[in-house]
Design brief:
heterodimer; A: alpha+beta; Uridine Diphospho-n-acetylenolpyruvylglucosamine Reductase, domain 2; Uridine Diphospho-n-acetylenolpyruvylglucosamine Reductase, domain 3; Vanillyl-alcohol Oxidase, Chain A, domain 3; 7-stranded antiparallel sheet; 5-stranded antiparallel sheet; 20 strands; about 20% strand; globular; disordered C terminus; B: alpha+beta; Alpha-Beta Plaits; 2 domains; 9 helices; 16 strands
């Protein structure tokens, strides 16, 4: 499979120029990196390597508030063999490698630490094969999530995980973070939708983890790789599961005068044995921001709204939506609206998916959190969040995957006001710790990255973290892949050694 | 961090820090991936349902609990898990074998069922992986690694499993002389089995949808309601869904068979010829075993690469 894919990739990408020296690569080169850049150019061509300040600056951040990333030369590989070649060059020069997709990550997972060679996977964005007989599609990691579902639409199938950033985020980034999305309530997160991955390991070798068979031989290396945040190797082709489009869909907007009634409705729906495709919750401040921004038709007087979608065969959809309606009314819903057609359904979802953009109308900055709590404890958790945020004199907009207890409190603020950043950090810390105290998890879909690295000790014992470290080291014994993430510093094997003392002043001036 | 649990601590003490040890569940898949090496001490995981939370759709259960016993308790709330029920088979055994039930289309795969595990490591200490919520990213995904590992990386003592709702109506139907793809249009099909001649399907869901699918099938071919699936031949072959749907071409080597359509498992009369595995995957398997169990004391003699 690996060879077939590599060949397919080469066909897609065609030939390329080689031969110009490092000095001709656009922009200035950090003097210490000249030999490295020359070797990278030699390996994959001068149009695929950049070492100028602008390229490195862009590759130093993701969408998190983390600002300490520091990229070395940036490569734009076009094929599996390009990736393998870059990894081999980096190793020869004693440098780490950090892959990145669209840079939409919210936990700093794609922020390169210690000036590694950065591999930007965005040029490997092709759909390689749709295999309907086996219910999978092979895609390159740089393919945008929504582009994949659009390409699959003519076949009556889709790719189920749908993060809010799906219009820009890539399949490779989704794989690295085990990303979710509203429809993961019924369909499961990325791990349930990846059946195989072609990977370049830290020694430059290429291996395919998992396969299209029902139960691949050996350990579930595919499962161990998904969600490893670029620290176990670099995915160069991904076989994703195709999900049949449901014959019927019913999208409902349930409105409540009280947040706790909305939260109680969520628990009651699940307890009734109904697993909707999605249950999303938005509180009043969020609804108002969305209405200002996207005019989705949400009622601004409601304290909270639930966007509930049930899908499946039409008879069951009718029954389930009627039951959801009844549960909502028994929990004091003030209105229940059912999308009459595809346009109305699209508008309701547009509101939900534009929530993060809408925050820009409220405050210039926001910090989007991501924790999970038992879904039966949503009422008390939300009360605690409002209390914490009030105490720190901040604004919070709540928009989240209520059905699986995955919270996304958005702290909106203006960082120009002195002392605000500290209050935002303090409130965020309390929200994370409160979530863990409620029996929850550190993150539902955004990953650990650097943001939550030091919280891992709060959730796991030394023994637990040692086991995680063994998983990572089995893939990458020398910790050369995206070092410094996920595991707290004491557990990141030789990560420290892989982090080249960053010559930040010389780079950024 | 998980609370102290006496049963788990006793299990860890029994496993101890050294000497070859294997864990016995119901013994239903005892020969999977090789025989226990001679002189290996047998231990058993603790049993019992610790906490079933229907509104959370999770259950915390000790690994030695028979799956059938667990499901009997979950059924009271209209739920079950993706784990297959075999006579006497335990939760730990089902997780370590990693083989899905024949209703995988409806219930999902075993590897997705495990949310959190507490297990005894090679050094005898207790580790925890995953988290107690239905959705969680908690660092590297040890839970996925443990499922199907035949107890060669750690010995699971307790599992938090995802539950799924049981369909309001469940009905087995046999379609005489039907093609493997005959049930493709039925969205309520939780299992589709084909022996090269007939198709059996489990329709599961709301009664109205099941009846509609039943009607659709009746219009297509000769179909009758039956009590359950056909008897499954003893050997399990793993193949692609496309290979399963075209299986009769390979009938010579397999003997009479029942193929799981849409999944890619074939139950055959003869064992599956050994599968070729690429050298890079073999090497990674070796490295995992070495890192997690440096002295090779956990379930010696067994190797997931030798699973059919």
């Amino acid at each position: 499979m690996a060879n077939t894919l590599a060949a397919a990739t080469r066909r897609v990408l065609g030939s390329r120029r080689r031969g110009r020296g490092a000095a001709e690569v656009a922009g200035a080169v950090d003097a210490g990196d000249a030999a490295l850049v020359a070797d990278l150019v030699e390996a994959i061509g001068d149009d695929r390597v950049r070492a100028d300040t602008a390229a490195r600056y862009l590759a130093s951040r993701d969408a998190s508030i983390y600002r300490e990333g520091n990229a070395g030369p940036v490569c734009y590989p076009g094929s599996t063999s390009d990736v393998a070649a870059c990894v081999k060059v980096a190793i020869r020069h004693g440098r780490a490698v950090s892959p990145r997709g669209a840079g939409t990550g919210l936990a700093g997972g794609a922020a390169p630490l210690g000036q590694p060679v950065v591999l930007s996977m965005t040029r490997m964005d092709k759909l390689l094969e749709v295999d309907l007989d086996n219910g999978v599609a092979w895609v390159q990691p740089g393919m945008v999530n929504l582009d994949l579902s659009r390409a699959l639409a003519p076949h009556g199938v889709h790719y189920a995980p749908d993060p809010s950033s799906q219009a820009v985020c890539t399949i490779g980034g989704n794989l690295a973070n085990n990303s979710g999305g509203p429809h993961c309530l019924a369909y499961g997160v990325t791990s349930a939708h990846v059946v195989a991955v072609e990977v370049v390991l830290s020694d430059g070798s290429v291996v395919t983890l998992g396969d299209v068979t029902a139960e691949p031989a050996g350990y579930d290396l595919r499962g161990a790789f998904v969600g490893s945040e670029g620290m176990c190797g670099i995915a160069t082709a991904v076989a994703v599961r195709l999900t049949r489009n449901p014959p019927a869909v019913c999208t409902m907007l349930l409105c409540f005068e009280d947040v706790s009634d909305a939260a109680a409705t969520v628990s009651a729906i699940i307890a009734a044995g109904i697993v909707p495709a999605a249950i999303e919750m938005m509180d009043q401040r969020c609804v108002r921001a969305i209405e200002d921004f996207a005019q989705a038709g949400y009622p601004e007087d409601a304290a909270a709204v639930l966007l509930v979608e049930v899908d499946g065969p039409s008879g069951g959809v009718a029954i389930a939506s009627e039951r959801v309606d009844g549960i909502a009314r028994r929990n004091q819903a003030i209105s229940v609206r059912i999308a009459a057609d595809e346009d109305e359904r699209a508008r309701l979802w547009k509101g939900r998916k534009s929530a993060f953009g809408a925050v820009a109308n409220v405050m210039p900055d926001y910090y989007l959190h991501d924790t999970v709590v038992p879904r039966t404890r949503l009422v008390e958790v939300l009360e605690r969040i409002y209390e914490i945020v009030d105490r720190h004199d901040l604004l919070v907009l709540n928009v989240f995957h209520a059905g699986d207890g995955n919270l996304h409190p958005i702290l909106a603020y203006d960082s120009r006001v002195p002392g605000t950043d500290e209050r935002v950090q303090a409130a965020g810390r309390e929200i994370i710790e409160m979530s863990l105290d409620m029996g929850g998890a550190l993150t539902g879909e955004h990953g650990i990255g650097v943001e939550k690295r030091e919280y891992m000790n709060r959730m796991f014992t030394e023994v637990d973290l040692d086991q995680q470290s063994r998983l990572r080291a089995s893939f990458d014994p020398y910790c050369r892949m995206n070092p410094g993430k996920v595991l707290p510093s004491a557990h990141s094997c030789s990560d420290i050694g892989a982090l080249r003392a960053a010559d930040a002043a010389g780079v950024w001036g | 961090m998980a609370d102290f649990d006496e049963a788990l601590a006793a299990f860890a003490a029994e496993v101890g820090p050294d000497g070859p040890v294997c864990v016995r569940g119901g013994g239903t898949r005892w020969h999977l991936g090789g025989e226990a090496a001679p002189g290996t001490r047998e231990v058993q995981a603790p049993a019992g349902v610790v906490a079933f939370e229907p509104a959370e759709m999770t259950v915390r259960v000790r690994a030695g609990t028979p799956v059938a016993e667990l499901h009997a308790e979950l059924t009271t709330a209209g739920q079950r898990t993706a784990l297959p029920e075999r006579a006497g088979g335990t939760v730990g055994g089902a997780l370590m074998a990693g083989e899905s039930s024949i209703a995988r289309l409806g219930l999902g795969s075993v590897r997705e069922a495990l949310l959190q595990a507490r297990y005894v490591c090679a050094d005898g200490r207790i580790a925890s992986a995953g988290a107690a919520t239905v959705k969680n990213v908690s660092g590297f995904d040890l839970c996925r690694l443990l499922v199907g590992s035949l107890g060669t990386l750690g010995l699971v003592g307790e599992a938090l499993l995802r539950t799924v709702p049981v369909g309001e109506t469940e009905r087995w139907v046999r379609l005489a002389g039907a093609e493997a793809g005959a049930v493709r249009s039925c969205h309520t099909a939780a299992s589709v089995l084909w022996d090269g001649t007939d198709v059996w399907t489990l329709l599961s869901g709301y009664e109205v949808d099941v009846d509609e699918d039943r009607g659709r099938l009746a219009a297509l071919c000769d179909c009758e309601d039956v009590d359950g699936p056909p008897e499954l031949p003893p050997h399990r072959w793993a193949c692609t869904p496309a290979e399963a749907a075209a299986f009769d071409a390979r009938n010579g080597a397999a003997g009479p068979f029942v193929a799981e359509i849409g999944v890619g498992v074939v139950h055959a009369s003869e064992p599956q010829p050994s599968r070729s595995v690429e050298p890079g995957v073999v090497e990674l398997n070796r490295r995992f075993k070495e890192r997690f169990d440096p002295t090779g004391r956990l379930n010696p003699g067994r190797d997931p690469l030798r699973k059919p």
